Amino acid sequence: MNTSLGAAAPTGAIVIDQVSKTFDRGDDVVRALVDVNLTFQEGTFVTLFGPSGCGKTTLLRILAGLEEMTAGTVSLFGETPAQAARAKNVAWVPQSAALLPWLSIRSNILLSQFVNRAADRMPAGDRKRIPEDPDKVLAELGLADFAHARPAQLSGGMRQRAAIARGFVQGAPLMLMDEPFSALDELTREAIRLRLLDVWEKNRKTVVFVTHSAPEAVLLSDKVVVMTPRPGRVHRVVDIDLPRPRSRAILESAAFIDKVREVQSILREGWEADE
Ligand SMILES: Nc1ncnc2c1ncn2[C@@H]1O[C@H](COP(=O)(O)OP(=O)(O)OP(=O)(O)O)[C@@H](O)[C@H]1O
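# adenosine-5'-triphosphate complex -> structure
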């Protein structure tokens, strides 16, 4: 099965080639990922979608340079994950906002730029990052009036928006998002997805996003990578050819509902094939 997300172009693409990951747990060996092959072009919004334990977070951690692969190679626009991490060319948006409680929202965001300053001293030609104006990003995420508030003064949805702002201001060409909305209620989640879409449409950064939600995957993505459980493999890559920019209205459209059903049925097919 061809799981390629586009023609391979090593420096303008993310290439995941025959990646496997095994965890050795003493007398038990867990095969978390087996022979994952994916290629996707810069500016693509990709979602990893699959059942619990299929290796989504493990793959994201490998891309972030936080986890070594057991076999295979990864090229992030021509760099290894370790090189990309060193140059701060990868931004990570976690499941919980993880903001420093004693700093304002704006200071939390500025801090992420401050800690990346060593990478900014690299020769301009070596730099892939273009740090963004924090006030602009805060405004785009509807947080302009809360820039000087402390995290405790914000709702959960607003804190998560602040975490997304922190990811965007770093200006890294690749943003990794590990179920960033999973702790939010459904209505807040829907609103924040639309906000993310709005900001993303403006800069078309490459994003690899993890979710368990088919509607979330379809709404946000250009490509949905459907994975199978135990061990994690790529079952299918589904093109989401819904027009952009996407707004709330698309959620009611027949094309959207059909695509969600298609992704859910491919997930079931992968699950049954595995049993
Ligand atoms: N550090 C680790 N040590 C041992 N096993 C691990 C480790 N990290 C992950 N695993 C195992 O690897 C497999 C894949 O885990 P992973 O967290 O990547 O899945 P996931 O698809 O992100 O799951 P979820 O959707 O529940 O977050 C699981 O069986 C998990 O128990």
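# post-check
The radius of gyration is 18 Å.
Residues 177 and 239 are 19 Å apart (CA to CA).
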